[in-house]
Amino acid sequence: xxxxxxxxxxxxxxxxxxxxxxxxxxxxxxxxxxxxxxxxxxxxxxxxxxxxxxxxxxxxxxxxxxxxxxxxxxxxxxxxxxxxxxxxxxxxxxxxxxxxxxxxxxxxxxxxxxxxxxxxxxxxxxxxxxxxxxxxxxxxxxxxxxxxxxxxxxxxxxxxxxxxxxxxxxxxxxxxxxxxxxxxxxxxxxxxxxxxxxxxxxxxxxxxxxxxxxxxxxxxxxxxxxxxxxxxxxxxxxxxxxxxxxxxxxxxxxxxxxxxxxxxxxxxxxxxxxxxxxxxxxxxxxxxxxxxxxxxxxxxxxxxxxxxxxxxxxxxxxxxxxxxxxxxxxxxxxxxxxxxxxxxxxxxxxxxxxxxxxxxxxxxxxxxxxxxxxxxxxxxxxxxxxxxxxxxxxxxxxxxxxxxxxxxxxxxxxx
Length: 415
Known about the structure:
alpha/beta; 12 helices; elongated
């Protein structure tokens, strides 16, 4: 019943996975499906990713991991076929529920390892862990100075049968920056990661999987591929940095489409203001359209009067309309064009409005909204509200399509 519809093309997800796998041949691929698969739908996207060749799934929060495991169990995907890694937890987490659900756990500090070992002993099941090292982002992860002690404790826990050390991982902070500073930062991260591998080897640990590169590392830093890559935003057809290379240039297909309908078309005289605060006034007589979505649905209020636009499918063809006035909680206004000299309304109530679509069809994108709002495409798609109707479709022509863009290296760095 909600007037906003999110349609996700699962074959676009599959096609993107194929494109990304070609960029990192010989490695495993962990599809990052945190935050409800970046707003695209946790269950459908995860299953589509596994069917397309993803070998792992990754989520940030432990609650997401448990929900995902339940969804996969219902769909017939065993933990062996669909392993899950989760990496954010707080002291006192119910580790036993995660261990018995066969979910892989990140270990950044000895307190985490201690709690996991106590839970593993209590439930009589060995925990699967990935040691995380801080290679320079200063978030989670053991520093190189603290890593020897953590590695030694983890090795002892493994010998005691409490844990299985499956992986070593970290994250890159500036892999999307083609500047000398960005390049130097990424190379320093990679070197610290290699140093961490040496520390683990000294403790007698040889993880089966060393993984560092997310979308940016996968696309632009082959040295960061190691044993597994972890694409997130690229999985959904969006570039980790459109200023470096667009999704189109990377051979990616946007999977998400957000549509609604016009609920009002009215005339405004020159000088009349629109919405709260009167922040936009009609420069001449204008036709205005009303779209029943707002910041409660994830349309960023900060994009107000910043050039965001929508495409309206009218009886006379597509019409590009710019957002005007302040974006409200549940609706916003667009400028449909001149109303001078008795010009008829160029659109009608009920016309379909495309807010996010495919740039190949000259439709607005998540990148367009991000630029207008002064943010990134990640935030645009992940903040789309729960009250929006979500549907999932297949387009076999898209997943079967092949082109040279599937295997190209994409737009190179330019300094």
